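Changelog note: in this version the structure field was regenerated for every chain. One regenerated record is shown below for reference.
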Amino acid sequence: MTARSTLSFEEVAAKYPEFPRLVMLKTDIHRRGVYYTPKALEAVDITKHQLGGTHIFGTRDGKLTKRPEAFVLRDGTSVLSTPTPLENSPYVVDLIDGRVVLTDDGEVLEEVFYWEKPDYYDKKTSSGALMQNIIGSRSQRLYLTPNRYCHFWSDDQGCRFCDIVNNLKQQRDEIEMQTRIKSKDVHETIKEALKEKGRFTAICITSGSDFHGNMPFDKEIDYYIEILNSVSENFTTDKIPVQLVCTAVTKEQLKRIYENTNILSLTMNIEVLNENIFNIVCPGKARWVGYKEWKRRLIDAVEIFGESRVNTGIVSGVELSKPFGFQSEDEALEAVIKEADELASHGVSTVNMVWVPRPNTYLANQKNASLEYYVRLSYKLQEIRRKYNLKIDFDDYRRCGNHPDSDLARAL
């Protein structure tokens, strides 16, 4: 196979008939992006639907305007939308015959349903902060990003696919987004969100990296503990369904998180499962932790949190970036799966996020992988989890909606 397969969606669907069609469609939507026509935007009810604008990462067209955060396909598959310029050949969401539909080259493919926003979204905390700017909502979980600045970017060593800092600057200018959220605002927002009985089943907390402290990342861990304890004040159980996404920290720091909070799941995203490409794409992570050490710390986390409670995420497709990436998709797939299998043998799950080349990043003008590559990768990651009997409850189709491979867990 060449580095960029030219198989169409229908050709890939015919080649892999056992792969759920709507999960494949979701994967391709993430890969190509979407464009909302004016009519599709007119169908948005601002009193009812959840709009974008508070996400930690930006859009593919670089615009921070009020468009649907996500939509649902007819089988309940959640699709996080990435608004994309028409010249990039995205899927198009349109309003036809009174229905909001997904189209491609003018052909209607599926009816889609915009996410409905939670009741707490338009309320404010006692400090006057809009609650939707404190905690977002994704599928069946609350999504909290208390610190939106990544300190790797302070010396230009942020991940080369990442626009977290540029997006923060845009959000601060246009919607008065806070860089660092107060724990009291978190407590009040969680309390209000939990009034919607049955809506949410988990909480995810993630932020930019912060290497400051007596030991690198001590300051990051201190802040997470503060935020997590403000969340916990709303619960009476020993443990709560919280997933923390943080930098790969030492075993001593991991123990401090575990012993001083009541979270259940930990994710430390390695981003790229290849040491040479990791060093180029993630220079800050390479400098402050290193590839081999990142993997070792993931395995250490299993000792503390337990199997099926430790994940890592990869930005799949970035391993094919030019000129330093793999030369073919076959070569890339073999290498990634070998590394993911090794981690799984130690109790660490790997989930895949489809790489979205965003403007104002170092890799902005690159292309992501083919649909067939993502289908094959999703299959392999699901097979690995089944092989080692690993669960991904905190990143499944109900709670996250961002990982094509985890969608397979309910179908295959």
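Spot check on this record: The chain has a mean pLDDT of 92. Residues 122-410 form a domain with the TIM Barrel fold (CATH 3.20.20.70).
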